[in-house]
Protein backbone atom coordinates (compact mmCIF):
# COMPACT_ATOMS: atom_id res chain seq x y z
CA UNK A 1 0.00 0.00 0.00
CA UNK A 2 1.31 3.50 -0.81
CA UNK A 3 1.74 6.13 1.86
CA UNK A 4 -1.52 8.08 2.10
CA UNK A 5 -0.66 10.08 5.20
CA UNK A 6 1.13 13.13 3.67
CA UNK A 7 -1.84 14.08 1.50
CA UNK A 8 -4.20 13.77 4.45
CA UNK A 9 -1.98 15.94 6.63
CA UNK A 10 -1.76 18.56 3.87
CA UNK A 11 -5.55 18.64 3.56
CA UNK A 12 -5.93 19.21 7.27
CA UNK A 13 -3.38 22.03 7.26
CA UNK A 14 -5.17 23.76 4.40
CA UNK A 15 -8.51 23.66 6.24
CA UNK A 16 -9.81 21.27 3.58
CA UNK A 17 -10.22 18.15 5.68
CA UNK A 18 -13.76 16.79 5.59
CA UNK A 19 -15.38 15.13 8.53
CA UNK A 20 -18.73 13.44 8.87
CA UNK A 21 -20.96 14.42 11.75
CA UNK A 22 -23.07 11.67 13.20
CA UNK A 23 -26.82 12.22 13.04
CA UNK A 24 -28.82 10.16 15.51
CA UNK A 25 -32.22 11.76 14.85
CA UNK A 26 -34.87 11.87 12.14
CA UNK A 27 -34.34 14.30 9.28
CA UNK A 28 -35.67 17.72 10.29
CA UNK A 29 -34.71 21.18 11.45
CA UNK A 30 -34.24 19.95 15.03
CA UNK A 31 -31.91 17.03 15.49
CA UNK A 32 -29.12 15.41 17.44
CA UNK A 33 -25.71 15.68 15.78
CA UNK A 34 -22.55 14.31 17.41
CA UNK A 35 -24.63 13.87 20.55
CA UNK A 36 -25.67 17.52 20.67
CA UNK A 37 -29.17 18.94 20.17
CA UNK A 38 -29.02 21.33 17.27
CA UNK A 39 -31.15 23.58 15.15
CA UNK A 40 -30.13 22.86 11.60
CA UNK A 41 -29.77 25.22 8.65
CA UNK A 42 -27.95 23.04 6.18
CA UNK A 43 -30.27 20.34 4.87
CA UNK A 44 -31.87 20.24 1.42
CA UNK A 45 -35.22 19.03 2.77
CA UNK A 46 -36.64 22.42 1.79
CA UNK A 47 -40.29 21.57 2.35
CA UNK A 48 -39.84 19.44 5.46
CA UNK A 49 -41.24 16.34 3.75
CA UNK A 50 -38.47 13.82 4.48
CA UNK A 51 -40.09 12.95 7.80
CA UNK A 52 -43.73 13.70 6.88
CA UNK A 53 -46.17 11.25 8.43
CA UNK A 54 -48.02 10.49 5.16
CA UNK A 55 -44.82 10.03 3.16
CA UNK A 56 -43.48 7.64 5.79
CA UNK A 57 -46.73 5.68 5.83
CA UNK A 58 -46.73 5.36 2.03
CA UNK A 59 -43.19 4.00 2.25
CA UNK A 60 -44.04 1.51 5.03
CA UNK A 61 -47.19 0.29 3.24
CA UNK A 62 -45.24 -0.26 0.04
CA UNK A 63 -42.53 -2.16 1.88
CA UNK A 64 -45.25 -4.46 3.27
CA UNK A 65 -46.50 -5.22 -0.24
CA UNK A 66 -43.32 -5.10 -2.31
CA UNK A 67 -40.49 -5.88 0.11
CA UNK A 68 -37.39 -3.75 0.40
CA UNK A 69 -34.97 -4.48 -2.44
CA UNK A 70 -35.92 -4.22 -6.10
CA UNK A 71 -33.95 -7.39 -6.86
CA UNK A 72 -32.30 -6.28 -10.09
CA UNK A 73 -31.84 -3.60 -12.71
CA UNK A 74 -34.82 -2.00 -14.49
CA UNK A 75 -34.05 -3.95 -17.67
CA UNK A 76 -34.03 -7.33 -15.89
CA UNK A 77 -36.94 -7.63 -13.49
CA UNK A 78 -36.47 -4.65 -11.19
CA UNK A 79 -38.88 -2.25 -12.94
CA UNK A 80 -41.84 -2.30 -10.59
CA UNK A 81 -45.36 -1.02 -11.12
CA UNK A 82 -44.57 1.65 -8.49
CA UNK A 83 -41.54 2.91 -10.47
CA UNK A 84 -43.74 2.99 -13.55
CA UNK A 85 -46.50 5.01 -11.90
CA UNK A 86 -43.94 7.39 -10.46
CA UNK A 87 -42.47 8.02 -13.92
CA UNK A 88 -45.91 8.73 -15.36
CA UNK A 89 -46.68 11.09 -12.50
CA UNK A 90 -43.35 12.93 -12.92
CA UNK A 91 -43.97 13.38 -16.66
CA UNK A 92 -47.39 14.83 -15.97
CA UNK A 93 -46.07 16.97 -13.11
CA UNK A 94 -43.37 18.55 -15.28
CA UNK A 95 -45.42 18.79 -18.48
CA UNK A 96 -43.06 16.50 -20.39
CA UNK A 97 -43.90 13.53 -22.64
CA UNK A 98 -42.09 11.01 -20.49
CA UNK A 99 -39.84 10.65 -17.46
CA UNK A 100 -37.22 8.08 -16.46
CA UNK A 101 -36.22 7.31 -12.87
CA UNK A 102 -32.62 7.04 -11.72
CA UNK A 103 -31.19 5.86 -8.40
CA UNK A 104 -29.72 9.30 -7.75
CA UNK A 105 -28.94 12.59 -9.40
CA UNK A 106 -25.25 11.96 -9.77
CA UNK A 107 -25.94 8.95 -11.97
CA UNK A 108 -28.68 10.71 -13.93
CA UNK A 109 -26.20 13.41 -14.91
CA UNK A 110 -23.54 10.86 -15.84
CA UNK A 111 -26.17 9.11 -17.94
CA UNK A 112 -27.40 12.12 -19.90
CA UNK A 113 -24.02 13.28 -21.14
CA UNK A 114 -22.51 9.85 -21.73
CA UNK A 115 -25.53 8.47 -23.58
CA UNK A 116 -26.07 11.46 -25.84
CA UNK A 117 -22.56 12.81 -26.51
CA UNK A 118 -19.29 11.43 -27.82
CA UNK A 119 -15.76 12.54 -28.63
CA UNK A 120 -16.66 14.69 -31.60
CA UNK A 121 -19.34 16.65 -29.72
CA UNK A 122 -19.25 19.81 -27.62
CA UNK A 123 -20.76 20.47 -24.21
CA UNK A 124 -21.09 23.98 -22.74
CA UNK A 125 -21.28 24.32 -18.98
CA UNK A 126 -21.54 27.09 -16.41
CA UNK A 127 -18.34 27.40 -14.33
CA UNK A 128 -20.32 26.85 -11.13
CA UNK A 129 -22.16 23.73 -12.25
CA UNK A 130 -22.55 20.81 -9.88
CA UNK A 131 -19.71 18.25 -9.96
CA UNK A 132 -21.99 15.57 -11.43
CA UNK A 133 -22.54 17.61 -14.60
CA UNK A 134 -18.80 18.11 -15.03
CA UNK A 135 -18.15 14.41 -14.41
CA UNK A 136 -20.83 13.48 -16.95
CA UNK A 137 -19.11 15.62 -19.56
CA UNK A 138 -15.76 13.96 -18.79
CA UNK A 139 -17.27 10.49 -19.08
CA UNK A 140 -18.81 11.33 -22.45
CA UNK A 141 -15.46 12.36 -23.93
CA UNK A 142 -17.07 15.44 -25.50
CA UNK A 143 -15.13 18.71 -25.59
CA UNK A 144 -16.06 20.63 -22.43
CA UNK A 145 -16.30 24.41 -22.77
CA UNK A 146 -17.06 26.35 -19.60
CA UNK A 147 -18.54 29.85 -19.54
CA UNK A 148 -18.37 32.42 -16.75
CA UNK A 149 -21.10 32.01 -14.17
CA UNK A 150 -24.49 32.91 -15.63
CA UNK A 151 -22.75 35.18 -18.15
CA UNK A 152 -24.97 35.05 -21.22
CA UNK A 153 -22.68 37.36 -23.22
CA UNK A 154 -19.69 35.10 -22.62
CA UNK A 155 -21.78 32.07 -23.57
CA UNK A 156 -22.89 33.77 -26.76
CA UNK A 157 -19.29 34.52 -27.71
CA UNK A 158 -18.28 30.92 -27.13
CA UNK A 159 -21.27 29.52 -29.03
CA UNK A 160 -20.50 31.79 -31.96
CA UNK A 161 -16.79 31.08 -32.20
CA UNK A 162 -16.75 27.33 -31.56
CA UNK A 163 -16.32 25.10 -34.57
CA UNK A 164 -19.39 23.12 -35.41
CA UNK A 165 -19.81 19.65 -33.96
CA UNK A 166 -22.23 16.85 -34.82
CA UNK A 167 -23.96 17.52 -31.51
CA UNK A 168 -23.77 20.42 -29.16
CA UNK A 169 -25.37 20.55 -25.71
CA UNK A 170 -25.56 23.10 -22.92
CA UNK A 171 -25.86 21.84 -19.36
CA UNK A 172 -26.59 24.09 -16.40
CA UNK A 173 -27.81 24.00 -12.84
CA UNK A 174 -31.24 25.66 -12.65
CA UNK A 175 -30.76 26.91 -9.09
CA UNK A 176 -27.01 26.93 -8.34
CA UNK A 177 -26.45 24.57 -5.46
CA UNK A 178 -23.89 26.56 -3.48
CA UNK A 179 -25.02 30.07 -4.39
CA UNK A 180 -28.80 29.85 -4.61
CA UNK A 181 -29.09 32.10 -7.65
CA UNK A 182 -30.94 30.98 -10.77
CA UNK A 183 -29.64 30.44 -14.29
CA UNK A 184 -30.93 33.02 -16.76
CA UNK A 185 -32.81 30.31 -18.60
CA UNK A 186 -35.07 32.47 -20.73
CA UNK A 187 -32.03 33.94 -22.46
CA UNK A 188 -29.93 30.78 -22.32
CA UNK A 189 -32.61 28.58 -23.88
CA UNK A 190 -33.20 31.15 -26.64
CA UNK A 191 -29.45 31.30 -27.36
CA UNK A 192 -29.33 27.52 -27.51
CA UNK A 193 -32.20 27.44 -29.99
CA UNK A 194 -30.48 29.93 -32.28
CA UNK A 195 -27.16 28.02 -32.12
CA UNK A 196 -28.56 24.56 -32.71
CA UNK A 197 -27.56 23.52 -29.20
CA UNK A 198 -29.66 21.28 -26.96
CA UNK A 199 -30.50 22.92 -23.62
CA UNK A 200 -30.33 20.68 -20.53
CA UNK A 201 -31.24 21.90 -17.02
CA UNK A 202 -30.46 20.25 -13.68
CA UNK A 203 -33.21 21.54 -11.39
CA UNK A 204 -32.15 19.65 -8.24
CA UNK A 205 -32.74 22.68 -6.01
CA UNK A 206 -35.71 24.21 -7.84
CA UNK A 207 -37.95 21.18 -8.18
CA UNK A 208 -40.67 21.28 -5.52
CA UNK A 209 -39.60 24.74 -4.34
CA UNK A 210 -40.23 27.00 -7.35
CA UNK A 211 -43.16 27.28 -9.73
CA UNK A 212 -46.84 27.63 -9.00
CA UNK A 213 -47.36 24.02 -7.98
CA UNK A 214 -43.74 23.11 -7.32
CA UNK A 215 -42.85 22.13 -10.88
CA UNK A 216 -39.52 23.95 -10.48
CA UNK A 217 -37.63 26.76 -12.15
CA UNK A 218 -38.80 25.81 -15.65
CA UNK A 219 -42.41 25.96 -14.54
CA UNK A 220 -41.89 29.37 -12.95
CA UNK A 221 -40.37 30.64 -16.22
CA UNK A 222 -42.95 28.82 -18.40
CA UNK A 223 -40.24 27.01 -20.36
CA UNK A 224 -41.64 23.95 -22.10
CA UNK A 225 -40.11 20.79 -23.50
CA UNK A 226 -39.49 22.48 -26.81
CA UNK A 227 -37.38 25.22 -25.19
CA UNK A 228 -35.62 22.97 -22.67
CA UNK A 229 -35.63 19.48 -24.19
CA UNK A 230 -33.85 17.80 -21.26
CA UNK A 231 -34.96 18.35 -17.67
CA UNK A 232 -33.28 16.54 -14.80
CA UNK A 233 -34.26 16.90 -11.16
CA UNK A 234 -33.63 15.04 -7.94
CA UNK A 235 -36.05 13.57 -5.42
CA UNK A 236 -33.81 13.60 -2.34
CA UNK A 237 -34.07 17.35 -1.75
CA UNK A 238 -37.42 19.18 -1.63
CA UNK A 239 -39.33 15.99 -2.43
CA UNK A 240 -37.83 14.44 0.69
CA UNK A 241 -37.31 10.90 -0.65
CA UNK A 242 -34.45 9.66 -2.83
CA UNK A 243 -33.49 9.30 -6.48
CA UNK A 244 -33.76 11.47 -9.55
CA UNK A 245 -35.41 11.61 -12.95
CA UNK A 246 -34.90 12.84 -16.48
CA UNK A 247 -37.92 14.18 -18.38
CA UNK A 248 -38.36 14.96 -22.06
CA UNK A 249 -39.45 13.48 -25.34
CA UNK A 250 -40.23 9.83 -25.93
CA UNK A 251 -37.12 9.49 -28.11
CA UNK A 252 -34.92 10.98 -25.38
CA UNK A 253 -36.21 8.52 -22.78
CA UNK A 254 -35.94 5.54 -25.16
CA UNK A 255 -32.36 6.53 -26.02
CA UNK A 256 -31.42 6.68 -22.33
CA UNK A 257 -32.97 3.26 -21.73
CA UNK A 258 -31.00 1.79 -24.65
CA UNK A 259 -27.69 3.60 -24.14
CA UNK A 260 -27.16 5.05 -20.68
CA UNK A 261 -24.79 2.80 -18.77
CA UNK A 262 -25.52 4.44 -15.39
CA UNK A 263 -29.14 3.45 -16.04
CA UNK A 264 -28.59 -0.04 -17.39
CA UNK A 265 -25.90 -1.42 -15.11
CA UNK A 266 -27.31 -0.71 -11.68
CA UNK A 267 -29.98 -2.14 -9.44
CA UNK A 268 -33.30 -0.28 -9.51
CA UNK A 269 -34.07 1.74 -6.37
CA UNK A 270 -36.42 0.13 -3.84
CA UNK A 271 -39.99 0.34 -5.21
CA UNK A 272 -41.21 1.73 -1.87
CA UNK A 273 -39.16 4.87 -2.55
CA UNK A 274 -41.41 5.49 -5.55
CA UNK A 275 -44.52 5.03 -3.40
CA UNK A 276 -43.15 7.63 -0.98
CA UNK A 277 -42.29 9.94 -3.88
CA UNK A 278 -45.83 9.64 -5.29
CA UNK A 279 -47.24 10.64 -1.91
CA UNK A 280 -44.80 13.50 -1.56
CA UNK A 281 -45.59 14.83 -5.05
CA UNK A 282 -49.28 15.01 -4.08
CA UNK A 283 -48.37 17.07 -1.01
CA UNK A 284 -46.06 19.31 -3.05
CA UNK A 285 -48.76 19.96 -5.62
CA UNK A 286 -51.75 20.34 -3.30
CA UNK A 287 -50.25 22.18 -0.34
CA UNK A 288 -48.71 25.36 -1.67
CA UNK A 289 -48.53 26.86 1.84
CA UNK A 290 -45.06 25.38 2.29
CA UNK A 291 -43.73 27.34 -0.68
CA UNK A 292 -45.41 30.52 0.54
CA UNK A 293 -44.04 30.10 4.05
CA UNK A 294 -40.58 29.43 2.66
CA UNK A 295 -40.71 32.64 0.64
CA UNK A 296 -41.59 34.59 3.81
CA UNK A 297 -38.77 32.96 5.76
CA UNK A 298 -36.27 33.74 3.00
CA UNK A 299 -37.24 37.39 3.08
CA UNK A 300 -37.09 37.46 6.88
CA UNK A 301 -33.61 35.93 6.95
CA UNK A 302 -32.28 38.26 4.27
CA UNK A 303 -33.53 41.32 6.13
CA UNK A 304 -31.93 40.06 9.34
CA UNK A 305 -28.59 39.30 7.68
CA UNK A 306 -28.58 42.67 6.05
CA UNK A 307 -29.30 44.39 9.39
CA UNK A 308 -26.28 42.59 10.86
CA UNK A 309 -24.12 43.92 8.04
CA UNK A 310 -23.63 40.67 6.13
CA UNK A 311 -23.36 40.98 2.40
CA UNK A 312 -26.31 39.32 0.70
CA UNK A 313 -25.96 37.29 -2.45
CA UNK A 314 -28.24 37.40 -5.46
CA UNK A 315 -30.44 34.56 -4.24
CA UNK A 316 -34.17 34.42 -3.69
CA UNK A 317 -34.18 30.69 -3.01
CA UNK A 318 -33.79 28.77 0.28
CA UNK A 319 -30.01 28.67 -0.33
CA UNK A 320 -28.56 31.79 1.33
CA UNK A 321 -24.77 31.63 1.56
CA UNK A 322 -22.53 33.92 3.58
CA UNK A 323 -19.30 34.12 1.62
CA UNK A 324 -16.35 34.07 4.01
CA UNK A 325 -13.40 33.49 1.66
CA UNK A 326 -10.83 31.79 3.86
CA UNK A 327 -11.26 28.04 4.49
CA UNK A 328 -10.10 28.02 8.09
CA UNK A 329 -12.20 31.04 9.00
CA UNK A 330 -15.29 29.43 7.44
CA UNK A 331 -14.66 26.34 9.57
CA UNK A 332 -14.20 28.46 12.68
CA UNK A 333 -17.51 30.21 12.04
CA UNK A 334 -19.29 26.92 11.53
CA UNK A 335 -17.77 25.60 14.78
CA UNK A 336 -18.75 28.79 16.56
CA UNK A 337 -22.35 28.27 15.52
CA UNK A 338 -22.24 24.60 16.47
CA UNK A 339 -21.13 25.53 20.00
CA UNK A 340 -24.30 27.59 20.21
CA UNK A 341 -26.39 24.63 19.06
CA UNK A 342 -26.76 25.69 15.44
CA UNK A 343 -25.70 23.57 12.50
CA UNK A 344 -24.55 25.36 9.35
CA UNK A 345 -21.87 23.65 7.31
CA UNK A 346 -18.77 25.33 5.96
CA UNK A 347 -18.47 24.68 2.22
CA UNK A 348 -14.91 24.77 0.91
CA UNK A 349 -13.04 24.08 -2.34
CA UNK A 350 -13.26 22.12 -4.53
CA UNK A 351 -17.04 22.25 -3.96
CA UNK A 352 -16.77 26.04 -4.43
CA UNK A 353 -14.00 28.05 -6.19
CA UNK A 354 -10.75 28.82 -4.30
CA UNK A 355 -11.12 31.79 -1.99
CA UNK A 356 -14.89 31.56 -1.74
CA UNK A 357 -15.39 29.27 1.25
CA UNK A 358 -18.73 29.98 2.80
CA UNK A 359 -21.40 29.20 5.32
CA UNK A 360 -24.18 27.69 3.27
CA UNK A 361 -27.38 28.51 5.11
CA UNK A 362 -30.48 26.73 3.86
CA UNK A 363 -34.06 27.25 4.95
CA UNK A 364 -36.93 24.83 5.19
CA UNK A 365 -40.67 25.35 5.42
CA UNK A 366 -40.33 23.49 8.73
CA UNK A 367 -38.42 26.46 10.21
CA UNK A 368 -40.21 29.18 12.16
CA UNK A 369 -39.28 32.85 12.41
CA UNK A 370 -38.14 32.22 15.99
CA UNK A 371 -35.59 29.72 14.62
CA UNK A 372 -34.23 32.37 12.28
CA UNK A 373 -34.02 34.80 15.22
CA UNK A 374 -31.86 32.24 17.02
CA UNK A 375 -29.60 31.88 13.99
CA UNK A 376 -29.26 35.64 13.65
CA UNK A 377 -28.34 36.17 17.27
CA UNK A 378 -25.78 33.37 17.10
CA UNK A 379 -24.30 34.93 13.95
CA UNK A 380 -24.13 38.29 15.69
CA UNK A 381 -22.07 36.73 18.49
CA UNK A 382 -19.49 35.21 16.15
CA UNK A 383 -19.39 37.98 13.60
CA UNK A 384 -16.12 39.39 14.96
CA UNK A 385 -14.45 36.20 13.70
CA UNK A 386 -15.30 37.08 10.15
CA UNK A 387 -14.35 39.86 7.85
CA UNK A 388 -17.59 39.43 5.97
C1 LIG B 1 -27.59 17.10 -5.21
C2 LIG B 1 -27.35 17.40 -6.62
C3 LIG B 1 -27.14 16.39 -7.55
C4 LIG B 1 -26.98 14.95 -7.15
O1 LIG B 1 -28.17 14.39 -6.77
P1 LIG B 1 -28.16 13.10 -5.81
O2 LIG B 1 -29.52 12.52 -5.95
O3 LIG B 1 -27.87 13.63 -4.44
O4 LIG B 1 -27.08 12.20 -6.31
C5 LIG B 1 -27.04 16.73 -8.88
N1 LIG B 1 -27.09 18.01 -9.27
C6 LIG B 1 -27.25 19.03 -8.39
C7 LIG B 1 -27.29 20.43 -8.88
C8 LIG B 1 -27.37 18.74 -7.04
O5 LIG B 1 -27.48 19.74 -6.16
Q: Could you walk me through the main structural features you see in this protein, from its secondary elements to its overall organization?
A:
The chain is of the alpha/beta class and 388 residues long. The protein folds into two domains: 5-40 and 288-387, Aspartate Aminotransferase, domain 1, CATH 3.90.1150; 53-286, Type I PLP-dependent aspartate aminotransferase-like (Major domain) (Aspartate Aminotransferase, domain 2, 3-Layer(aba) Sandwich), CATH 3.40.640. The protein is 42% helix and 16% strand. The protein contains 15 helices and 13 strands. It has helices at 5-13, 53-66, 74-78, 81-94, 105-116, 131-140, 152-161, 185-194, 217-220, 250-259, 261-264, 271-286, 289-307, 327-339, 369-382; strands at 30-33, 36-40, 98-102, 122-126, 143-147, 168-173, 198-202, 230-234, 244-248, 319-325, 342-343, 345-347, 357-362. A seven-stranded mixed β-sheet has the order 3-9-8-7-6-4-5, with helices on both faces. A hairpin with a 2-residue loop joins β1 and β2 (36-40). The radius of gyration is 21 Å and the shape is globular. The N and C termini lie far apart (44 Å). Residues 104-106, 109, 130, 132, 173, 177, 202, 204-205, 234, 236, 244 line the site of pyridoxal-5'-phosphate. Pyridoxal-5'-phosphate (PLP) binds next to α5.
Amino acid sequence: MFDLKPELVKKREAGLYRERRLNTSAQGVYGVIDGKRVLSFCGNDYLGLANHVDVKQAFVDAVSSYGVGSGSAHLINGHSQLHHECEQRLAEFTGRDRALLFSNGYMANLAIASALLGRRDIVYQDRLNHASLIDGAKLSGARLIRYRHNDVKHLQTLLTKSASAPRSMLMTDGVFSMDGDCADLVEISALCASHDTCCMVDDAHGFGVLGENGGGLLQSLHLDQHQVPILMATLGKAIGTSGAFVAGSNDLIETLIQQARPYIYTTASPPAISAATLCSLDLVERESWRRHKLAELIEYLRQGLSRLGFELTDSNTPIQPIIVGDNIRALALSDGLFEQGILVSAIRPPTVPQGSARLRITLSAAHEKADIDRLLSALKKIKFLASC
